[in-house]
Amino acid sequence: MSETEFTLHPQLAADCLEIGDWPLCRLLRMNDRTYPWLILVPRRAGIREIIDLARPDQIRLMEEIALASAALRRETGAHKLNVAALGNAVPQLHVHVIARFTNDPAWPRPIWGVQPPVPLGAAADSERARWRAALQPDQ
Predict the structure, then answer these.
(1) Cα maximum dimension of the chain
(2) Where in the chain are the domains?
(3) What is the CA radius of gyration of the chain?
(4) Which UniProt keywords apply (predicted)?
(5) Helical H runs in 1-139?
(6) Residues 23, 57 contacting (CB under 8 angstroms)
(7) Beta-bridge partners for 37
(8) Which of 56, 101, 104, 123 is the most buried (most CB within 10 A)?
(9) Tens digit of each residue's pLDDT, the chain (139 residues)
(10) CB neighbours of 96 closer than 8 A, spacing ≥ 6?
């Protein structure tokens, strides 16, 4: 599967702001002001699970997850980082990296189903710019 065949799943496109691309992943910011929440989507067509990636891509994915996690912690001061590749509703492989705080609405439970997303609205452009700057490879 090549990058040229890659298409972002429509649900991810609808729910997220595109931040940019790293060597393997498309970087997204979930359109939810409640949680600082990044999503990494390997730009490989037809991939559903991490084990479906070629070995070098598996290693690169873990490196990019670590870079996104470090940026999220640095930018937000998160008490905990949640990293998950669920894919129950969206089959395309994507990895959630979510900053968690002891005072967030779902703490200490998982965030899903606790409350509907609160869109970023007018803050979307500034959030996109913030994360583009924070996720530069030299950070």
Answers:
(1) 42
(2) 3-131
(3) 14
(4) Hydrolase
(5) 10-15, 55-76, 124-134
(6) no
(7) 98
(8) 104
(9) 445 589 999 999 999 999 999 999 999 999 999 999 999 999 999 999 999 999 999 999 999 999 999 999 999 999 999 999 999 999 999 999 999 999 999 999 999 999 999 999 999 999 999 999 999 866 5
(10) 30, 37, 38, 39, 82, 83, 84, 85, 86
Three-state DSSP state, 53: coil
| Superfamily grouping for domain 3-131 | HIT-like (3.30.428.10)
* Cα(113)–Cα(130) distance, integer angstroms: 27
CA distance 67 to 86: 20
Instruction: Compute the distance between CA of residue 63 and CA of residue 57 in angstroms, rounded to an integer.
Output: 10
Cα dihedral 81, 33, 43, 95 sign: positive
Residue type (1 letter), 89: A
